[in-house]
Amino acid sequence: GAVVSQHPSWVICKSGTSVKIECRSLDFQATTMFWYRQFPKQSLMLMATSNEGSKATYEQGVEKDKFLINHASLTLSTLTVTSAHPEDSSFYICSARARDRTLYGYTFGSGTRLTVV
Amino acid sequence: QKEVEQNSGPLSVPEGAIASLNCTYSDRGSQSFFWYRQYSGKSPELIMSIYSNGDKEDGRFTAQLNKASQYVSLLIRDSQPSDSATYLCAVIFGNEKLTFGTGTRLTIIP
Lengths: 117, 110
Hints:
The complex is a heterodimer of chains A (117) and B (110).
Chain A: E1 4-7, E2 10-13, E3 19-25, E4 30-38, E5 45-51, E6 57-58, E7 67-73, E8 76-81, E9 90-98, H1 101-104, E10 106-108, E11 112-116
Chain B: E1 4-6, E2 11-14, E3 19-25, E4 32-38, E5 45-50, E6 54-58, E7 61-66, E8 71-76, E9 85-92, E10 98-100, E11 104-109
Parallel strand pairs in B: 2-11
Antiparallel strand pairs in B: 1-3, 3-8, 4-5, 4-9, 6-7, 7-8, 9-10, 9-11
């Protein structure tokens, strides 16, 4: 089956620093990557959508200069939280959509728990 | 605004009974519907996908879709304590983004 590897699984950083989260599709080509954020006891909120080789499309209210997304290849997408603040502490999850949607659909990474202190 | 609505619960069901989870969505043109299970601190995992009106069964799980009523449900038969989790309904709207409901927290009581 389709597997998306997300790294790191958890990270603690100091306020003002930047953190990079990676998502790799291991056995399929991810033409589109979705990045979600989930606060405690809340549902997943879509932050942005990225297509390989294109600029990401951000949802309303999400600062594109703060959450930098790169999708340079069909197997790797990265989310960088720049100048992180405690309110950015959350669970970040990527979801990859394969070129062959009927075969793989949407596959989620294991998530990254970010704590900003 | 594309919306997916779920009863947040918590829903408590005795072990061995049937758990029924419900979801409504706002876009009549939606074609793809999913149920995910999420354990605390973990990423969602896909349980069922359904695209056509009617029922779709997979083991102890049955998804039901009624596009006319814009309603999708998930039944879990012979509920087990390991089924205790938050269940997320997700719908793909016309823009092909997977939109999640708020989730229903299910607790199976031994």
